[in-house]
Structure prediction request, 234 residues.
Amino acid sequence: MKGLKGLELYISKAVGRAIMDYEMLEDNDKILVAVSGGKDSVALLHILNLRRKIVPIKYQLLAVYVDLGYQDNIDKLIKYFEFLGIDYRIEKVEFSNQENSCFWCSWNRRKALFKLAESLGYNKVALGHHKDDIVQTILLNLFFNGEVSSMKPKQELFEGRLTIIRPFAYVEEKLIIKFCKDKNLPYLENNCPNAKSSKRLLVKDIVKNLEKFCPDVKTNIFRAIKRIRKDYVL
Prediction:
């Protein structure tokens, strides 16, 4: 990839592998990129915008920020969208203190994204979930729901009319953090009222502690969901 180097090149290649492995993109796709304002989604927008200049397929990008009312400094994001020359939309969703659960937030954000994608004719929605998110979801579902399931890197919805893609499926969070700092990307601090009290944070700490004894624990968990030995399942 001419012109890319260092961490930018590494992440771009990892995204390329995930896109190829899960057949995420096709020529002339119209991709709505869900930009929450955090480091993951801002980095994803940067990489997807960069890659469309150097990969053989053509695709459109639309950056969408769903405004739930608790995030400050949205203008910072808008300026970045305009700097990249990417079309964008700000979708407002009413928020109240009585509705501050993670489920409410996630549900209404997705609802707004899906409705907008349908109305504008976009066939893909790109989310900034990374490898750590996928691993944590596997453990969350195992520990708290008693089931073996996770986020899919590619998931078709509504009889195939819309497809969710997660191009950062092979990228670890620590690399995204370093990448954002190196490139000075303008991401917003997480002001979610539940950010420091979620079950996901608990599982994140568990995985971090396990890494001290098994550095490959995240990769092992990620691979395990695809390597279930049915002869040994109840």
Summary: The chain has eight helices and six strands.
